[in-house]
């Protein structure tokens, strides 16, 4: 039997036990940490130091480079050994490293969508690395704590019937995307990433424009995607002419992706749809748990999307 | 006294008079044509041939190049003289030509948003012309006939709580954007344009990523925008830190724009918010009428945005 | 092993087998019929005549009185024996009759919400039967076929940001509500029922105003409700001060109810929240299946509501 | 020239001048007070004492009976002379008294909708006064301060895709409705009123069920309504078969109403649709201003509804 626990900040659901990572190490084999960043890096090393395994849902262990952390989070990281050891928790890229890991950093919602939309193309060597532009569009639950943040921006009458960009040229998920795409490409790259807030509860849609190194057809690109994601339980590569929609994945861990060649501009348009609370959040964390425990990756994730 | 008429397809509002452009030329000085493309190019030359002036809201007279029309609309244009004579009806760019014109082609909604978001930068010579990526996000009324098209995609239960890209690498507004931006830049350019459908009635948000020819600050870019739009009655350049939102312009002819430099990628992020039925549609048509008649451009467009 | 089938009209999902109820009786033990009314009464008797058991989701077998059928559906019923035999498929009221039934008529969405909101009060003898007013509020999927009906009323741009009543004093779910409430009260009664269409995908909220025969407190009424629903797996009686919301039940078979005494008017306000596709639709049908097969009533209905 | 001012609580729009009603009396002839209740009754008597005229948008002067105020607002009223003098600001009922008034209390949003839906029937003597049930459904801006209240209930992710009743048997707009309907009927009456919160920005729909004293047809009831509202600039009585929708009035001061006889229950269903910020709020206040100043009642209220 494997014992699993969830450690969160005391919130409106009530506090069941003081947050005590040493105690947690004794009562649970794997612990999900649903803490704000800066808080996770205090609790996680205590748990791991006592033999516990952690799945961290905060941003604290996603960036391998401690300098990047300082640059984007404006504070030094206080658990450098943990940072060095942590595995980026996207099973489609790091399944083998996740399985034995003691510390897994589950991705941010935008990086999950952006990386899954473009990974096959960057791994293939068919992309040029300069000039990648990524546009992220998120439902309001993406805005932290299920959108319960007390900020006028998240009020119904402000968010409803509205669209806006935010964090322009400054969003903290940018280095996370660059880290993973650079690793796939085998060379450092930068992305121009702009996040947007849309009037829906759940759903995250990513539109990435990637320059191609050579002229390619949509059909050829789709072959690359299908090969890359062959056997993946939660990534569905749609056929030419089919379009991902967030509606088709809400309530699930699925990621729908497709790619279209644009010969006029020499670019590919790579799109993905996820539930930001699913593949972009807690459900992906459960998939990590399944990998870490050697269970079927579908365990606990069988419920189909809720449609409509 | 100037007499104005609107000529539309007979629809659910009833038919008041058979569509007879010759008759219209006798009873009206300026006629709005709200017909499907391919229909406008039949009616407009009759009206103009009888001395009438036309503001065409269809796509028929927006592209100057008849070959472009064939490429994107899959049919030859039957009024080449009209096409040659038509003025692109964006007053911020073509006010002087619109004033005396007998045929004005009011822009598509996506081009209105995309061109206003990027025009100052392209005119300034500060942009590189290769690698421009534009992401358009439209409310459902953008989908023709106030979204009354009978297609499952536009049903509430399909569009609500959903986001999707469509017309990927193939949307007909693309050449319109390229035509206007090329003219501003003084050199041919192509854009990678992807439109999206969002769950709101009105509102069109544009996010454009434009490579910079040289390192520039946001402040410097904003100066360029403020100078370009100085005196414009309907374009509001927001300050650094302010963000356009569609909510702030819905129900009006306003276009809110801003620009942010991204020194990490050597690009600028240019964003605009319009009402697709306002600056992206009928209200912009009324502004054209005002220019053509020598009236104050605010005539009939004084109502403030409806907020919230 | 019990074999279960679903028989629906050929639709956009493709046709798997011609609708042949005799064949179905051979391959399935229980068949869900998801046909339009008037169609079900043709197919169901064939299935039952060949020994099959049916759960009918249409309106064809809900009314016990054939004259009521004619009055509200404007056509004679062609399967009077089936009508006489059918059991109204609300397990909270008719569990014992459902278990052995060969034909179960799953309720309409409004009746499910209205009956569950008021049943304890009417059964208790504490209500006056004259002057009951019921207001139903439904999401757009309530409008048939998951709202895929091709009618402008269901278009996003018509339904979004809109509220309206429809079928005023004429909705076909009215006699269904009256039949069940009359049976509970032991005397014929009529209800003034008005349905409304609201801008959400799923969710049905019922507000019923029931005159009280005597002065009662909210606390006393809640005791009546708790006793009536004791042990029910899917009805949750909320405490005084708690309010049902459709959000708390969407995606599930739950029905949240509560009741408030209004001593000023001598009435009780009875409210319920269901998912019109859950307890008001297919999920309730599955609960019927479980009862008919002697399975745990939660089988296949364990997924929690999707929140938010 | 008549000088008009608006006095509000200092809010996010900045403070232009300390709230000083004595000073206001010197600089303005008519002052709108947009203050919380309890605050208005402090400021208004000072203004009126110095010869100013007030249009109060709070709840402070709507109830004629000071005891009712204590009962529903849990505090004594501190300006009893003002309370005695105030005119209820619904021009359709009190135009003659509003014209010369020095203090006009603009109605709450629910009362505006409920009273306009039922006034003709209650004035006609055709209704029974016992057993009136009124169901109000409001967009989120109805929830105070354009919904900018910092309460989780008003967050997008809580309010979106949700319906709920609130203030059951306890909403403060109830006595306001009863006061006006009692006056119309010429006898005291009580209403069972339940408000609801719906996922839209603006719009308030009222469904009232009123017992009839005698059997009447829809046609006869509509005649009563048309006669009652003859000449009203902002009330539109819809024909049999037409249904009010909030969409048709949003952004305007219009109130669409209709009535349907229900011979089965001996009741009438009276429905109305208003914009809670229009006829249910500020626009109705402007209509009061027009009446008080002898201007056309349409002054400043000419903008058509924004549709869709």
3D structure, described in words:
Four copies of one chain form a homotetramer. With 308 residues, the first copy, chain A, is an alpha/beta fold. Chain A has two domains: 4-107 and 282-293, Rossmann fold (3-Layer(aba) Sandwich); 109-274, 2-Layer Sandwich (Dihydrodipicolinate Reductase, domain 2). Chain A has helices at residues 21-27, 40-49, 66-73, 80-85, 91-98, 109-124, 156-159, 174-185, 218-228, 282-293; strands spanning 4-8, 30-34, 53-56, 87-88, 103-105, 132-138, 164-165, 191-197, 204-211, 235-237, 255-262, 267-274. In chain A, the strands form two sheets. A seven-stranded mixed sheet of chain A has the order 7-8-6-9-12-11-10. A five-stranded parallel sheet of chain A has the order 1-2-3-5-4, with helices on both faces. In chain A, helix 6 packs across helix 9. The longest helix of chain A has 16 residues, at 109-124. Chain A is globular, with a radius of gyration of 19 Å. The two termini of chain A are 37 Å apart. The mean pLDDT of chain A is 94. Chains in contact: A-B, A-C, A-D, B-C, B-D, C-D. At the A-D interface, helix 7 of A face helix 7 of D.
What keywords describe this structure?
308 residues; 5-stranded parallel β-sheet; 7-stranded mixed β-sheet; 2 domains; alpha/beta; 20% strand; 10 helices; Dihydrodipicolinate Reductase, domain 2; homotetramer; globular
